[in-house]
Every structure is written in structure tokens, then in C-alpha cells.
Known about the structure:
The structure holds 2 protein chains of 2 kinds.
Chain A (H helix, E strand, L loop, with lengths): L8 H10 L4 H19 L2 E4 L1 H21 L1 H6 L7 E5 L26 H9 L2 E6 L33 H8 L5 E6 L5 H7 L2 E4 L19 E6 L2 H11 L24 H6 L5 E5 L9 H16 L3 E5 L7 H16 L17 H12 L2 H14 L5 H23 L4 E5 L15 H5 L6 H5 L4 E9 L2 E8 L5 H14 L13 H4 L7 H13 L1
Parallel strand pairs in A: 2-3, 2-4, 7-8, 7-9
Antiparallel strand pairs in A: 1-3, 4-6, 5-6, 5-10, 9-11, 10-11
Helix pairs in contact in A: 2-3, 11-13, 11-14
Chain B lengths: L4 H11 E12 L39 H13 L7 E2 L2 E4 L9 E4 L6 E10 L2 E14 L3 E6 L5 E6 L6 E7 L6 H17 L12 E11 L9 E6 L2 H20 L8 E5 L4 E6 L10 E2 L6 E2 L2 H9 L5 H10 L5 H8 L2 H14 L22 H18 L10 H12 L5 H14 L3 H8 L7 H14 L1 H8 L5 H12 L6 H13 L20
Parallel strand pairs in B: 11-12
Antiparallel strand pairs in B: 1-9, 1-10, 2-15, 3-4, 3-14, 5-6, 6-9, 7-8, 10-11, 12-13
The structure holds zinc ion (ZN).
Amino acid sequence: MTDLTRLTALQQAGLLRSGEVSSRELAATHLDAAQRQNHALNAWLVIDRRGALEQADAADARIAAARAEGPAALDALHPLAGVPIALKDLVSVRGGQATAGSKILEGYRAPYDAHITGRLKDAGAVILGKTNMDEFAMGSSTEHSAYGPTANPWALDRVPGGSSGGSAASVAAYHVPVSIGTDTGGSIRQPAALCGIVGLKPTYGRVSRYGIIAFASSLDQVGPFARDTRDAAALLHAVAGRDERDSTSAPIPVPDAWRALPAPDQAAASLKGRRLGLPREYFLDGMEPGVEARVREAVRALEDAGAIVEEVSLPHTEYGLATYYIVAPAEASANLARYDGVRFGPRLGDGDVLANYLATRGQGFGPEVKRRIMLGTYALSAGYYDAFYLKAQKVRTLIKADFDALWAQGFDALVAPTTSGVAFRFGEKMADPVAMYLSDACTLPVNMAGLPGMSIPCGLSDGLPVGLQLIGAPWAETGLFELACGYEAITADAPWRAIEPTALAQADDPAMPTPRQRAAALAAGLVG
Amino acid sequence: MSATAPSRLETVLERYEPVIGIEVHCQLRTVSKMFCGCSTAYDGAAPNTHCCPVCLGLPGALPTINRRAVELVLRAGAAIEGTTPPVTRWDRKNYFYPDLPKGYQISQFDLPLAADGRLTFDTSLGPVTIGIRRAHLEEDTAKLIHAEGTDGGRVSLVDFNRSGAPLMEIVTEPDVRSAEQARRYAEELQLLLRSIGVSDADMERGQMRVEANVSLRPVGTEPFGTRVEVKNMNSFRSVERAIEFEIVRQGAALDAGERLTQDTRGWSDDRGETYVMRSKEDSHDYRYFPEPDLPPLRVDPAWLAEIRAGLPELPAARRVRYQAELGLSAYDAGVVAGDAGATALFEATMDAGRSLDSVRPLDAVRPLDAVRPLDAKQVANWVTVDYLGLRNAGATGSAITVDPAQLAAIVRAVGEGAVTRAQGRQVLAEHAETGASAAAIVDARGFRQISDAGAIGAAVDAVIAANPAAVADYRAGKAQAVGFLVGQVMKSTKGQANAAAAGAAIRERLDGAPEAATPGDGAPSGGAVEG
Ligand SMILES: [Zn+2]
């Protein structure tokens, strides 16, 4: 009997429809894996076994009813009906926790469903639980979670990336076939790259943010993690589309093509004649040679399949990081003002209002969140607004114009590295915030410009995954999916594709130290 | 007002000129809140029953714009002749307070929905026009209630029912020069907002909150003095009193060589003075920046034009028309146009008076061509004296309903002598109380004044026959005998006869004039016979 956890979401959907497997079986198998390995991986903040099995039973009933009704009814079911899924712990699920990785939201239960939660429930997806993340999505390693770091399934002493590290690790470790993350500066694509899976940040406005705990409103987007492109597209299909409750969600139709992308041979053929730009600024000084080699090999493979690749320039890329670290913290400083202990979460201090604020926020927020609140508050302060925030918005326009110029020249997409290095060790960048911030140098310009960006696995460097980033024009997700499918088709037989995350056997061992213990030991070693 | 205040005020005004700017916050007449679907009908509701994730500022909640609220501010902007930019936007105003759930208020900073308007009104020293700098839309805060906790300690409770209700802020230029102007501006603004249906603007209920920035400068100089913000003025009278107090206080301080500080002061109605609420050191840096959760708002010029075209006649224009076209006195025009209920009743009664329906209730046989418009002065008199009198005599806040068609019938009946003025007043009162029609009340009370020639003639004939002595007196030249005979007619008709018509009929008969004369259809009856 095949291991159900090794199947993609669409393969699981096929078995559910044919009746070869039940949603309860799928849920139970995946829950077992998650529960067995969470000690070593800490990918999950909550695994809701009972709730998940109830949802699975409901999905089984729906599928059975549809099967009784006939093939048309079965077809009308969403591909994700009955399929297990994980949500980053900043997605509101009615009655459930939503900590955003912060102590300040400990004990908070969301009284409502996020838009995407409602859509996933409608589709019949089975939510197994909530995944770990950097506090309020601020970080690139998941080490900034108040609930301890998450380990990378490829190497338990390394980070999975962040901020959606738990969602990425849970998919890479076969706890779920697909999961939901959010991406503000790279928080889906970077962990996807570091965990060797597919991650997509859609065009800004593609997915409603209603019910998603905000980091930076003008940059945040919800997106899928999956182990292949077809699954990612199916999940995006389930959650995308206009929502009246999010004024920034766009009334752009969601292509039904995402439910069923072209077959591999077609996808490979469709690479022919595609015009791809290779932005030279994304190959940073200090890039790891192994990562650059894998990316350039991938580009060559695309060329060999008929794509036309030209080196291009995005001249304002070098200002991306500085600009991002004005805009995002500025918005965050206001978005995080609501965590005051008045209406929800722990309230600390028993003095006057100010004393309560100081105690609640002083102890509730971690150091990285405080750093960004201070950065943002400073950037918005009287006398500094013009020099920082206003200037940053102008530079943002220039960054976007760089991309627009390439679309105007007829490029179908850009290909670039997702990161300049592979997964790093716990603690390696914790002492130097700027080094950590540089992890997102290749991804955050895409958020600044509001574009769709995707990371797909393109091989290993020193036994660790490398991600290839695909960047598209606004609303051009379909093009990215086709490109990614094409790449998957032409590299289907590559030896690296057969390699599973190398630390999974270790993760099965209950004697393994937890990521928190591991990180502490590494820190002690570094100090000593 | 204390006995000494006016003189002290006058002495201050000899040396200093007040420079005053007014900020008014108004709750808008919308069904739902500014950025969520919660109902705004929370008055009197149990605390925290009108809220949702959005107006509670829960994690992940997002705002959506209430189109109706935008429309109301655009309407107000049009009424003050303001300009609206083609693209406007929302900004976050950041500060911490438990009544502000998100830690920021969604407001408008540098692109308000309306700017550069004006408002003209009368004062005791003549008409004044005040420039209005801006009118913008924002959300209201929750309400803090300070109470005693179960352990006897002081606790603060938050009621989020008001949180996120739409609020319009209207800010004047520093054009106001006296406490009276400030009060009159606030009154006229309230009238305007009510008449265009933008806000109920009830100060006592917190639907309209007035704040004033008051400073003094030596007469004849240009630079502004140190500005003090005055809050907590809960009535028009307290606006005037607080500003007068502040002028006197600042004048005395300046005279004493003191340096004023840029404080926020509250007004205590009981003590009749202002007190420091916040000093300048506590002033906020609100760190305004564009609200990223809401896209910029493009106001469709066609929509704006539609809103402008849909504006009703504004109070100022109405006052002019009432005087110029309807001949009302300035006073009556001011009173009728100064009260939304009075305006509506006056207009509708004049309209009703143009239709046959106003005649029918009391006179079913009148031909259409006999229907003449009601006399505006008479209608204004009924509205300002009787309607407002009835309304003000009633319980506070109780609405009384007067059907304009019924008032028109009453005005006409009195004007034409069908009932007396005093009877008409009773009919109106009863109608307002019970809703019964004027005709039904007149019938039930037997209020019909007899002007009909036949009916009066019969009564006159009977009286002449029964009083030969008085008839002989009249024929002997004692004209006053007619008075006695009219009295007898009134007696026999239980006071319902038209006295003038009866007198005329008696004279005609005794002077031997032809009997075909028709009393009652006009001139002689009038309002002369006040019961
Ligand atoms: Zn609400």
C-alpha cells in the first residue's frame, strides 16, 4: 500500500472520488505524521485532531452524496474536498486560536472565519491545524516565534525560512499536501525555497486579507505551499477572488484553468518561445556558488526547452531593502497598535492605562516586533515623514516602474534566484538583523511592486534545496503556473527530484531534541 | 450670565480682538456604521450589542467604506459651497486610548471630501459669513464609562456600540470674532445639516459636538495669539458662555503680563468656567499616513453633480424667499426657516392650501375656482405661534404630528369665518393630539360658525319677531339696538353665528334692503369676530 502522505493533493482527490480512500483515512494518516514529528520539527502550533476528523467525516458524507448523485456532482466538488490542509497561525478560524506566533495573542480565540477559511470550508478542505511562524510574520527563519523555532525537514539544526516556516515545513515533511502561508517580503517564497517545495505569492489584491492578521497591509498576500505546481494552483483557485470585505481585493476573474493545468507534455511544449528576463541585480555579491549554479542550470534547461532568455536590468533593486524596511514597519507600527490588552489577549499590569499598555506590549511583543514598531514609528514621526515614508513610497513607484518597463518590452516572466543561500543554521543570523533582512533581498521587490512571484525547487546545493523564483506581470499567475509546470515536466526525471527531505527519519525519533533545545545548544556553542 | 461679566468682557474687547475657529463633529444619518455593517441605532441599547470584528478592531478585520456616509459629507460640502477633490483618500491618525480599538482612527488628513466652503447667518450686529476650511469623514470612538467595580475600586468600562459610527468633522477658518458669532454659527450649521438630512445634530445627545479654538490679539494687529482649545460645550448657550469666559480669562491674563499656554480646556456649565484638561506637553504626534487598507476614493463628477442638484432649498435662501416672495416678516421668516419641523409644516400647508382638498373638509360645495392660495402670513402665524407652541408645550423630544392638509383647512376656515380663531386653535390642538380630522372635530364640538345666509336669516327673522321693542328703538335711530339684536341671534345659535353676517342681515331687514344679499362669502366675515 502506498504511503498516502506521499501523494499530491490532486492525487488524493482522485482516490477520494474513486472511493479508494476516505477523507477520514487521509486525515488520520496525515495527523499521525504531524503528531509524530512535531516534537522534532515544531512546525505546528496546534494540531486539531478531533476537529479535523469531524471535518473529514463531513467531507466523506459530501463526497458520498455527490457520488450517489452522479459524475456531474462529483465533478462539481472542489478538487480540495476532503484533502488535508494546514493554515499559518495568523488565519482566523472561528473558535480557534490565532496567535500570529506572539505571546500577545495567547488565549485569543477568533470569533469569526477569515475569508479564505470560509472558502476552504466551502471547498471541503480538512484543516488539520495551525502552523508556526515568525511573530506577526516578521522574520525569515521562524526563529522569531514566541513558541520556539521550527526545524527544517532537510536538516534539523537549520531553519525552514520564514515567516511561514511552519507551513513550509509541514508540506515538505508530508504532514499535509498543501498549506496556506502569507508573504509580505518573501515569507512564502523564501521558506518554499529553503524547504524544497513550491510557494506562490499572488498578485496583490488576488486573495482577500479579511481575517488574516495584518503585518503590512499594502504588501501582505495570502498564498499556497505545495509539493508541485498543480496543487498550488488548485489551492489558489480555492481561495482567490474578490471579497467585498477587503477593499483592496480586486474584481479580477479567477481562471478555472487553475483547477486543471495542462498535462506535462503540453506544459513542456508550451515553454517554446516564452520570453524570459534574467535580472542581473538578483545575482547578489556573496551569493552561494552552489545556489547560483542550480539557478543557472535551471535557466539553461528552460532555454533548451525553447524559452528565450535575455539578461535584463531592474536598476532600482538595490534600494528595495531600504525602502521595504521603511514601508513595512510603518504600516506594522499602526497595524499592531490594536494589541493593547483591552479587548483580547493577556492584559498585564494593574496600574493606570499607560502602565497596562507598557506592561502588556512590553512583555507581549518579542524583540524583532518591537524593533519594527520602533522603526515604523520613527519613520512616520513629525519631521521625518517626508524624508522616510514619503520618499520610500516614491522609490516604491520606481521599483514598480522597473518591472513595468520589462512587461512593456514583451517579457512573459522573469526568472531569478529566490534566495542567495540555502537554509542557514539556527542562530546564524539572529545577532545581526540586517543579515536576516538580506534573506529577502530577492523577494521583497516583488511585494513592493504588487506582482505575483513563485518559488519552485530547482535542485540541491550541499544536500539542501535551492529555489528558482518566477516573477510575473500583475494577474499573470496562469503564465507562472504554466512555466512552472513546464519546468517540472522537463526536470521530472532529474535525480534530485527523487530525494526526500533528509532529516525525516530523525524527526520520527522521539528522543530528538526540540528545535528550541537545538537552537539553545547552538547558541551556547557559538558563545563558547 | 453674571452681573460683572459683560462689563469685563467689554473692557477686554476694547483692547483685544478675539480670533476664534470652530470645529464641529457630527454623527451622520446613516443606517450602518462607517466601515462595517453594524447598525447605528444603538441609542439606548445594552452596551456592546452593536459591534463586530471590524468596529471592535479584532485581529484581521478590515474596513469597507460606507457609500451613504460619503454621500452625506459630499452633500454637506455642496451645501457649504465647498470643493471636492477628484481623488481623496483615507489616513490613519495614530494614538493609544482604550476607546480607540485599532489604536488609530481612520480619518482624512490632507485631502478632505470638501474644502473651502462658507456659511452665512444673521447676528444681532447683522449678517456674517464664516469661511469653512474643510469637512471630512472619520469614524467615532467607543464610549468610556467610569464606574465602581465589584471590589469598590474605580473601573473603566468600554461600550463599543458607538465605535466606528460615521462622523463628519467641519472646521472653520479662524474667522469668528465673538462668542455670539460662534453660537450663531453652530446654530446655523445645525439647521443646515438637519435641513439637508445629513445629521440630526442634537447637541445634548452628542450627535453634534462643538469645540472652539480661542485666542486674542491686540486690536489692530495681525499675528494670532496663543490658542486655547475649549471642549465639553454641550449646548449652544454653553458655546457662547464658554467663549465669553475664555475671552475674559485670556484678556485678564494678558493684561497681567502672563504668558498663555496652548492648553486644551474643558467647559464646566455648573461652575461657569473653563479648566485645563491637557497641556501642550501632552500634545500628540498623530503620525498620519495613508490608510493602506482602503484604496483612494475617486468621486465621480456625475455623482457629485447629482448630489448638488438634489440639494433642497437651503435655510438662508429660504429666509430670503419667505420675505421677498411671501411677504413674511424677517422674524417670522427666521422662525419658520429656523426649525425643520416648522419649515416642513409651513411648506406643506401652503401646498395643501393650493388644492381643493384644503377646502373640502369644512365646505364640501365650494367650486374649484373659488380656491385661493392661503395667506402666507396667516399660515406662518399658525405655524410659529400655534404649532411651535403646541410642540414646545409637549414633553421634550416628543414629536407632534400635524397633517398639513388639516392645518390648511383650519387656516382657511378661520380666515373665511367658518370657525373662530379660538375655535381653530382648539381644533388644531385636538387634531395634534388625536389625529382626528378638522371636520370631524368641528362637527363633534359643534364649532361651525354660521355664515350661511339662509340659516342666519331664519335666526334673524325669529329674533326680530320676538323683540319688537328693540326693533322700534332701531327705527327710532338708536343704532346700538343692532348690537342687542345680534346678541340675541348669537344666543339663539349658541354662539355659532357669524356675528358680522348677522348684523348685516338685521340692518338689511330693518332698513328694508332686498333679501337677496349674501353675507359670508368674503369681506364682512374676516377674522373680526374673535370668539
Ligand atoms: Zn461593526
